[in-house]
Design goal:
CATH topology of the largest domain: Aminopeptidase
Keywords: DNA-binding, Transcription, Transcription regulation
Oligomer: single chain
CATH class of the largest domain: Alpha Beta
Strand content: 15-25%
Number of domains: 2
Protein name: AraC-like DNA-binding protein
Distance between the termini: 22 Å
Number of strands: 7
Organism: Cuneatibacter caecimuris
Domain HTH araC/xylS-type: 9-107
Helix content: 40-55%
Pfam families: Acetyltransf_1 (PF00583), HTH_18 (PF12833)
Low-confidence stretches: none
CATH superfamily of the largest domain: Gcn5-related N-acetyltransferase (GNAT)
């Protein structure tokens, strides 16, 4: 895992240093000295996105920041983001942010599609299912830095997330013992906040390097058997066909959640998913 992580870190360093350029898989592979096929495979395995999607989301995020915090024209921002025309930039921006660049600017609120993918700190020892199950616990205030570091890694799953509002809600969840965490050496491998009254999972994130370890099933088992017993458990995510979805609908379906009603949350179109203990779900490995 360490070698793979080092390759990805090198590729991401190159991407971040060249966000205003037209970046392709070939140019990155050449710059870091790896086969583009090998680089593509391990990038998707590690980050959960193709290099094309990661670059696009990072460029749009930096563009959104400029829209809110600078006086640059939309055309200028389009060119900085590597687009040859303002119309092409506007089209993809609206697909991902659900607002035109001008509408987004007028809202005066920045939120990211994709933050820099930081793999500076990772757990290298093997993780055992029994140990992980036993170590899922309620989060404490001292866990907040590790929790927020994981939020940065999985921000792609939470459109319109405002960091200040989120921190306030996180502190409240911790105080009310509604926030669960699995951590190793001060690195959050997975976090989840729940609502006892509604039976909803308000936030759920698993570290990309450990998504194949069965952690999601362990959290769902704990919630279903210990915390939200005899309740239908709900979670919201992207609607079908949303180009901003990096795989979360598929992830929840594989866990056993079923589609429910369409919603709009914080101005963003979403869909509720339900997991019913009565009908069961795919919570096995």
């Amino acid at each position: 895992m360490v070698n793979k992580v080092e390759i990805i870190k090198t590729a991401i360093d190159y991407i971040e240093n060249n966000l205003s350029e037209k970046i392709s898989l070939s140019t990155i592979a050449t710059a870091v000295g790896y086969s583009k096929y090998h680089l593509h495979r391990i990038f998707v395995e590690t980050v959960g996105l193709s290099i094309h999607n990661y670059v696009q989301r990072r460029q749009l995020t930096e563009s959104a920041k400029l829209l809110v915090f600078s006086d640059k024209s939309i055309l200028e921002i389009s060119l900085i983001a590597g687009y040859q025309s303002q119309q092409a930039f506007t089209n993809i921006f609206k697909q991902m942010y659900k607002k035109t660049p001008n509408e987004y600017r007028l809202c005066e609120v920045f939120y990211p599609l994709q933050l820099r993918f930081d793999l500076e700190h990772t757990v290298t020892e093997e993780l055992l299912q029994q140990e992980m199950q036993a170590e899922i616990r309620f989060a404490k205030l001292t866990d907040i830095p590790a929790w927020l570091s994981l939020v940065d890694l999985v921000i792609d799953g939470f459109p319109n997330l405002n960091s200040a509002d989120y921190l306030r809600e996180l502190k409240k969840s911790i105080a009310e013992q509604r926030a669960l965490i699995l951590e190793k050496n001060k690195i959050a491998l997975a976090v989840m906040s729940i609502n006892y009254h509604s039976g909803s999972i308000d936030f759920f994130g698993v570290h990309p390097l450990y998504r194949q370890c069965g952690i999601a099933n362990l959290f769902l088992n704990k919630v279903m058997n210990e915390l939200l017993t005899d309740k239908d458990i709900s979670i919201t995510t992207f609607r079908e066909g949303d180009k901003a979805d990096t795989g979360y609908r598929k992830f929840y379906k594989e866990l056993g959640f079923s589609e429910a009603e369409l919603l709009v949350e914080f101005g963003y179109p979403t869909q509720k998913f339900i997991f019913s203990p009565k009908t069961g779900g795919n919570i096995n490995e």
